[in-house]
Amino acid sequence: MTLSVSPGVAVDLRVQPVDEILDRVERSLQVRFAPDTVVRKRRSVGARTDRDTWVRVERRSLDKIGDQGWNGTECAARLANIAQPAWRGCVVWRDADEPVMWRADETELLPGVPVGTAVLSEDPKLTDAWWRALNTSLDALAAQHTRRLATPDTVPITQTLVTETIQTVVPGDFDTTVEQWAPAHADLNWANMTAPTLCLFDWEDWGNAPRGLDSATLWGSSLAVPALADRVRRERRHDFESRDGKLMTLFTCSKILGPDAHPEDPRLEPARRMAEQVAAELHAG
Q1: Which of 7, 76, 237, 244 is an S-S bond match for 203, by CB 3.0 to 4.6 Å?
Q2: Which domains does the chain have, with CATH numbers?
Q3: Half-sphere exposure of residue 219: CA atoms within 13 angstroms, side-chain side
Q4: What global pTM score does this model have?
Q5: Is the peptide bond before 196 cis (omega within 30 degrees of 0)?
């Protein structure tokens, strides 16, 4: 096994050797990876195959794999009327040396390139047709049914988490009880969707979440581009105007403004202003 890491040391697949992992996946799925297409992220590695598909390999610790498992991409394959890459198959195994599991999912290739990084600094100038496709997919997703619980940042989203996260930055005695839960992507940012043709990918963490989580998350990743953030709020107005949407806006602001905030993050000031505005609305309502 290539990765042997001391307990307590965070693994970053951008720097750790992964050749043995990729070799194992190639043998299991009977594919060959194109070396010049490998994309390495902190906890996942992806690459194009010789049969024109994409394989994403993820490393996840056992304590981050709950009762529902971690087969989000596989389970998302049954969702209807959503722009996403077709799922082809997977291979999963437990690491022989570390308390982690590995999972490789094979999907069809994306129809375009990612819009950008998780947090944008420039307006991607998306078309009206793109926004209509996004609304169609998000509305279709929210209308479906699942017993899965969304796990943004691999953490199950619960009422307790919502309340505690909001109160770390916006203390107050207003009610933070979520009224509506519905299926959400739970990692909806600009790195997980394509343009000019819309396709939503990286479905590892989808599941039931408070209404408006996806809209608020996308808005939060747009705050460095005010016109884009405003467009997200206009397009998803029905989410943001709901009580749960306001709670999710506060939830997103609290994550931006929390103890791990970078002092030079351009999103800090707009998130602070929005948090104050929404908190006042919830207090008044």
Answers
A1: 76
A2: 19-108 (3.30.200), 113-284 (3.90.1200)
A3: 28
A4: 0.89
A5: yes
